[in-house]
Amino acid sequence: MNTTITSLIFTNYKFQSEGMKDLFEALSANCTLTKLNISGNNIGPDGAKIVSYLMLVNTTLKDLDISYNAIGVGALHIADSLRMNEYITKLSLAGSKMPSDGIKSIVKSLKTNTTLKKLNLDANFISGTEIQYLIKYLKTNSTLTSLSINSNDIGMEDAHLFNELLQCKHLYKLKLEETFSSPEMMKVFFKDFHLNSVLRSIYVGKNRINSQGVQCLLDNIVQSSTLQELHLNYNKIDYDGIGYVAKYLKQNSYLKTLNLSFNMFGPIGAKYISEALFTNNSLKKLVLDDNLLRTDGMRSIAQAFLVNSSLTFVSLRRNRFLDVNQTIYKSLINNYTIIHMEPASKRVKELCDRNKDVQRVLQFPKTFNFQKNCATVLEELLLVLKVKAIPKELIIIITKVVAFRLLLLPHNIYNFLKN
Asked: Quick check: 121 pLDDT over 90?
C-alpha cells in the first residue's frame, strides 16, 4: 500500500461490498490518508458495515464521502462508529436511502461526537420527525458548523421547525436547496432570522421562490450583521425581484458573496445590480451566470467596475452578449481590485494579473516574508505614496524596487533607513 497518498477517490466504480473488503484491508493500516471518497458504488448495508470498521481503526481519515451508496440500515453501523470516532471532521451521506431510524441514529451521534464539523444529509427524505431530532441534538453539539439538507421531503407543516434550527448557536453554514415549495414556506422559515447572530452562509438555490419569495427572504435577513454568503441561484427571480436584491445591497455592508446565477432577469435586472454596486463597498464575489444579460446588461455591469472598489471575483458566463470585451477591458483599466473575471479575453486576464500584483503590494507585510523592521519601512513608504496620490502602477514599481533593495541590505542599514 502506498504510504504517502493522502487523498483517494473511487466514485461510480460499482464495486459493491466485495470491493469494500479489499479496500478495508488496504486502508486499515494506512497512516497518511486524510480524504476518502467512495460515493456512487452501491456498497449497500454490508459495505457500510465495513466502512464503520474503517472509521474505528483508521486514525488519520478526516474527510469521508459515502454518498449515493444505498447503505440503508447500514447507517446504524456508521452512527455507532461516529459516536466513538475522534478524527473525522467532514462526513457526506447524501442520497443514502436511510430509514428514519438510521437518520435519527446518525443525528443522535452528534450528542457525543466532538470532532465532526461538516455533515451532508442531502436527498434522504428527511421530514418533520427527523428535523425535530436534528434540532434537539444540534442544540447540545458545539462543533458542527456546516449542515447540508438539500433536496429533502420537508412540507409546509414542518417549516416552522426551521425557526428552531436557526437558534443553534454554532451553525455557520446552512444549505437548503430544493427545500421550499412556496414563498409562504420561505417566509415562515426566515421570520425569526433577525434573532440569529452566527449564521454566515445560506444556500437557498433551486427553490423557485420567485420575486415574492426573495422579498420575504430579504426583509428578514436585512438586519443581519453576520451573514456573508447568500446563494439565490436557480430561483426564477425576475427583474422586479432583483430590484429587492439591489435595495438590500445598497443597505448592506457585510455580505461578501452573492450568487444570482440562472435567474434570467435580463438587462433591466443587470442595471439594478449595477446601481447597487456603485454604493456597496463590501461585496467581493458576484456570480451572474446565465441571466440573459445581453449586451446592454453587460455594459451596465461594466460601468460599475469604474467605481466599485471591493469586488475581486466576477462571473458573467453564458449571458448571450455580443463582444463586449473591449467595454470590460476599458472599465478595468482603472480598477485595481478585480483579480478574477469570467469570461475574460487575453487583455482582461492581463489586467486581472496586474491587479493580483497590486493587491500583493498593498497588503504588506502579510503577503511577503520580510523581516519585521523591513516590513515596517515598506509600510511607511506605502503610506507616503498613498498620501501623495501617486498612481498605483507607479506605487507597485517603486515598492518592488525598494523591497528588492532592502532584501539585499545588511541588518544595520534597515535601521538607518527607518530612522
From this structure: yes
What pLDDT band is residue 144 in, cutting at 50, 70 and 90?
very high
Amino acid at position 3, single letter: T
Q: Which three cell numbers stand for residue 324?
A: 463586449
Of 213, 207, 258, which is closest to residue 240 (Cα–Cα)? Answer: 213
- Grid cell listed for 298: 453587460
Residue 261 confidence (pLDDT): 98
Q: Cell triple for residue 277?
A: 454596486
Which H or E run contains 103? helix 100-108
Task: Dump pLDDT digits (tens) for 57-105.
Answer: 999 999 999 999 999 999 999 999 999 999 999 999 999 999 999 999 9
Alpha-carbon distance values, 90 to 85, 121, 235, 352 (Å): 12, 12, 28, 34
The set of residues, in sequence order, having a beta carbon less than 8 Å from that of 204 and lying 6+ positions away, is: 176, 177, 179, 180, 186, 217, 231, 232, 235
Asked if 65 and 88 touch (Cβ cutoff 8 Å), the reply is no
How far from chain centre, in Å, is Cα 356?
A: 21
Strand residue runs (E) in 157-244: 173-175, 201-203, 229-231
Q: Note the Cα 15 to chain centre separation in Å.
A: 32
- Reported as half-sphere exposure (CB side, CA atoms, 13 A), residue 326 has a value of 2
C-alpha to C-alpha distance for 148 and 131, rounded to whole angstroms: 12
Domain boundaries of the chain, sorted by first residue = 1-153, 237-362, 365-418
Opening angle at CA 397, ends 376 and 413, nearest 5: 40
In degrees and rounded to multiples of 5, residue 247 shows phi and psi of -60, -40
How many other C-beta atoms are found inside a 10 Å radius of the C-beta of residue 379? 13
Sole residue written with cell 443597505: 251
CA nearest 217: which of 298, 207, 106?
207
Pick the CATH number of 237-362 from 3.40.50.720, 3.80.10.10, 3.40.190.10, 3.40.50.1010: 3.80.10.10
The answer regarding whether domain 1-153 maps to CATH 3.80.10.10 reads yes
Q: What are phi and psi of 375, to 5 degrees?
A: -60, -35
1-153 against 237-362: fold identical: yes
